Amino acid sequence: MKAMLWILTLVEAAVAGGSPADSNYTQGINTTVSVVVNGFVKYQQMIGGGCSGAFGVACDQFGRYGLSPANQDIVTETLFSENIGGLSVLRNDIGSNGSSTDGSIFSILGTCPSTPDGPFDYTWDGNDTCQVQLSKTALKYNPDLFIYADAWSAPGCMKNVGTDDDGGLICGVRGSYGNDNEGSQSESSASSQCNNTDWRQAYADYLVQYVKYYQQEGVNISMLGAYNEPDFNPVTYASMESDGYQAKDFLEVLYPTAKAAFPDIKVSCCDATGARQERNILYELSQAGGENLFDVATWHNYQSNPERPFNTAGQPNIMTEWADGTGSWNAYWDVTGQLAEGFQWALYMHNAFVNSDTSGYTHWWCSQQTTGDNALVRLQNDEYFVAARLWAFAGYFRFARPGSIRVDAQSSVENVYVSAFVNTNGSVAMPVVNAAHFAYDMTVNLSGTNATTAKAYLTDNEHNVTMVETYPVRGGSFSANVEPRAMKTFFLQ
Ligand SMILES: *[C@@H]1O[C@H](CO)[C@@H](O)[C@H](O)[C@H]1NC(C)=O
Ligand SMILES: *[C@@H]1O[C@H](CO)[C@@H](O)[C@H](O)[C@H]1NC(C)=O
Ligand SMILES: *[C@@H]1O[C@H](CO)[C@@H](O)[C@H](O)[C@H]1NC(C)=O
Ligand SMILES: *[C@@H]1O[C@H](CO)[C@@H](O)[C@H](O)[C@H]1NC(C)=O
Ligand SMILES: *[C@@H]1O[C@H](CO)[C@@H](O)[C@H](O)[C@H]1NC(C)=O
Ligand SMILES: *[C@@H]1O[C@H](CO)[C@@H](O)[C@H](O)[C@H]1NC(C)=O
Ligand SMILES: *[C@@H]1O[C@H](CO)[C@@H](O)[C@H](O)[C@H]1NC(C)=O
Ligand SMILES: *[C@@H]1O[C@H](CO)[C@@H](O)[C@H](O)[C@H]1NC(C)=O
Ligand SMILES: *[C@@H]1O[C@H](CO)[C@@H](O)[C@H](O)[C@H]1NC(C)=O
Ligand SMILES: *[C@@H]1O[C@H](CO)[C@@H](O)[C@H](O)[C@H]1NC(C)=O
């Protein structure tokens, strides 16, 4: 209760501090900003925003702690509907451990053969630790869902450490046999359990088999990944290491295997812990001759930020996992300035899209029964609470739909961040984030669009992507007010 009052006081202070009604606040400051959007200068194609039900957390959303079927549906709709959260990417976790301990995902390979020649006794329970249900309900609200199936590790029997946790390498990649592991992070590679056998094809077949099981369920997997944070060994959960050279040794097997089974499927590389760590892997992969053995560069935002374009051979990149990690639940837009607030996420996305040509942005969990801050929706038995982070995603992705192209947008001031995206039907989404503590009067000049109206959707401490105004666009130009510490998305048609 005490904490609540403190928060309310902060909300009032934040609002009062930035209020344009305080006429002295901006004395001597130029409060006009001019924005130029050039639809003829095109950058990356967008894939969308997303989240994950990995590690068994999908089951939280499907009743494990009492969320009723009606609310299960509402939570899915809130996340994935084009008119609410606007998400269109779902990252599923391919399990690697046959024994179902808490937090580990059911694996399709319960017991391993003693040699890579098999036979492989795959099994499927049609459930995949509630990820099938999450996929199917998300598809109901977004039929064009982009599902990313990603493994944290190969099954233990295919690795030089013999278990799916504790890092280690796929048997068959350079360094995995224990005698040539210079530079490897894997302590146990010195005593390799690979016995000089090569399990790369077995692991590739196993990943493809997982995609086939989803196909049987009527669910198409759009992208397949073999790694999660291969630059990091957390020891205690499913994990597997790889540098870019070792990734080359495996992707040269996985890439043709995946394409032979599913010609349209995308193969990712490599979900590193940070943007810099990902660039490092991509550089090594390219140096080893593997720059064309993946379709999408995937990275997490934990250990470093995107600051410049990725060093791919033209492939797009997606931020595939990030959340606060250790903080307590924070549902606010802009109250404490804490890194997990919605307003901050609007800026993280701006920076990734504009500075690193990022095509998609995936929060860690979708929903979770918790008091922590790792999900977009917090569940408490049959109640649910939405973090303002979801409104930041919605401010981009309800309007810049999958397939849209980012185009050039320039702002005359540093504290007004503008990006622009042209949808496949020619409509334009222009998210504007005003980081100033006062309102700006904005004039926008547009080229490369025939839009005649601009509808404005406001997100701040009091609004969640709320339509507030419609402006006429005349001669490729319009003027609008942008509120302090707010995201205002203009949708032009
Ligand atoms: C506010 O503005 C008025 C009129 O310009 C001026 O007289 C007054 O001194 C200002 N107050 C402060 C605290 O700056
Ligand atoms: C204020 O900023 C706008 C846009 O950057 C600029 O066009 C205008 O000349 C500036 N006005 C003054 C008085 O500096
Ligand atoms: C899926 O499996 C989980 C246990 O992992 C179980 O709680 C849930 O009821 C199952 N869902 C369905 C639809 O069978
Ligand atoms: C499965 O997980 C358990 C618990 O983490 C671990 O002890 C065991 O070694 C794992 N099995 C394999 C084959 O990786
Ligand atoms: C290597 O041999 C050991 C001992 O027989 C066995 O436990 C292990 O599973 C083998 N590893 C592989 C990758 O075949
Ligand atoms: C899955 O992909 C196949 C092949 O591209 C396509 O024919 C089918 O319509 C897709 N199914 C769904 C449910 O999207
Ligand atoms: C906006 O969303 C928050 C949760 O993020 C909710 O608490 C609040 O009531 C919503 N406000 C409006 C005006 O819908
Ligand atoms: C164009 O596409 C956008 C994004 O999908 C959609 O919201 C809008 O309604 C479409 N406009 C028309 C005129 O169909
Ligand atoms: C915007 O367009 C108007 C009218 O064509 C023009 O006068 C103005 O210079 C343009 N502003 C910028 C910043 O391009
Ligand atoms: C705008 O209209 C012109 C004339 O109809 C057309 O040629 C052009 O493709 C349109 N531009 C866009 C971006 O839709």
Give a summary of the structure in a few sentences:
By secondary structure, the chain is α/β, with parallel strands linked by helices. Helix content is 24%, strand content 26%.
Number of helices: 9
Please write the CATH class name of the largest domain.
Alpha Beta
**Rg over CA atoms:** 23 Å
Number of domains: 2
Order of SSEs, N→C? HEEHHEHEHEHEHEEHEEEHEEEEEEEEE
Unreliable stretches: 1-20
CATH superfamily of the largest domain: Glycosidases
Q: In terms of structural class, how would the helical and strand content be classed? A: alpha/beta
CATH architecture of the largest domain, by name, is Alpha-Beta Barrel
What level of helicity do the residues show?
10-25%
- Estimate what percentage of residues fall within beta strands: 25-35%
